[in-house]
Amino acid sequence: MSPKTTAVIIVAAGKGERAGSVEDATPKQYRVVDGQAVLSRTVTAFLSVETISSVLVVIHPDHVDRYAALELAHDRLMPSVAGGPTRQLSVLEGLKVLAPQRPDRVLIHDAARPFVTRHLIGRVIAGLDGYDGALPTLAVTDTIKRSLDGTEIAKTEDRRQLFAAQTPQGFRFGQIFSAHMRATNVRREFTDDAEIAEWAGLRVSMVEGERDNIKITHPEDFQRAERILMSGEGFETRIGTGYDVHPFAEGDAVWLCGVKIPHSAKLQGHSDADVALHALTDAILGAIGEGDIGTHFPPSDMQWKGAASTVFLRHAGKLVEERGARIVNLDVTIVAEAPRIAAHVPAMCAVIAETLGITADRVAVKATTNEKLGFIGREEGIVSMASASVEVPRSR
């Protein structure tokens, strides 16, 4: 029996006007939090789960250029689709696009919940066992009052029976697609997909939600999002190190940190022999437990002969993104008697930052000599060492 497939619809078709401000009218899903757009964080979180078969983002028709500017790319990320005038109709558009794939399950998630974790995603999928749908919830802790006119209290609710709903909400695909199609004939707007499932007579289970799985709705929610990121909750920091050495050969320039520097020799290697980027790539791969550069780009493979080492570095950065992780800082040390690199350091940091999609202040490049000792002192080659600090979703 083939494994069950799980598709994801990320609803990003709203204009996010309530979360805007006088200073920044950017729709909330495209606002940047700690260097990354909200929608990018949300998409990356789902792509980091290997059991997700495909991810579809439903966007506002006016946001095509904004979405393209995020430069999201992955073999499991489908081309975006334009949504409708309401959330309910936007979800239906997504379901229609997924229908030819006939996935077994579908998770429907709000783009404005960027802190969804792989653990919560797993609980929702597991909650579908024996049920038609699964809904993450949090127990209501405040006392809830009901009022008919907003002025006078009419009743106190029993909070033991009240739960706040979150997303992603999971369903068996055929059943929720059918329910959504039928719901288009009902003259009222449903508040979420679980309500449509209830209306259609489907059985929906509840699984434990997460406090940090907030929905960014108002301007102050961005401040809360920053606090969540600063607290590091849900993440752990891992350190990777890299070391590489290349001998000199006849030539007129060396590649170091993606910058070509004139010299009386070149570095010998299968690719462009950028010893610094090789060490840095190994450091990043080590931080996320992904082996070394030779595992991903074997020197025996002729397609990498003469290749720019930024290709290797970019690959390592993509693996970090796919795990929902983030690079904290990178540190590179180059050990050589020559050439002198001090004047090239700003350009080196800029190349690394651009290749990985991070800010240059997270990158440090330093150089030192070997005090004329050993093969480095004899100017027979160059050594580079690197370290990478990466925050990854915390394992349980």
TrEMBL record:
Residue numbers spanned by region 2-C-methyl-D-erythritol 4-phosphate cytidylyltransferase: 1-237
Domain of life: Bacteria
Residues that coordinate or bind a divalent metal cation: 244, 246, 278
Catalysed reaction equations from the record: 4-CDP-2-C-methyl-D-erythritol 2-phosphate = 2-C-methyl-D-erythritol 2,4-cyclic diphosphate + CMP; 2-C-methyl-D-erythritol 4-phosphate + CTP + H(+) = 4-CDP-2-C-methyl-D-erythritol + diphosphate
InterPro entries tied to this protein: IspD (IPR001228), IspD/F (IPR026596), IspD/TarI (IPR034683), ISPD_synthase_CS (IPR018294), MECDP_synthase (IPR003526), MECDP_synthase_CS (IPR020555), MECDP_synthase_sf (IPR036571), Nucleotide-diphossugar_trans (IPR029044)
One Pfam family cited in the UniProt record for this chain: YgbB
Cofactor: a divalent metal cation
Alphabetized PANTHER family for the sequence: 2-C-METHYL-D-ERYTHRITOL 2,4-CYCLODIPHOSPHATE SYNTHASE, CHLOROPLASTIC (PTHR43181:SF1)
Protein name: Bifunctional enzyme IspD/IspF
Species assigned in the record: Devosia lucknowensis
Gene from which this protein is expressed: ispDF
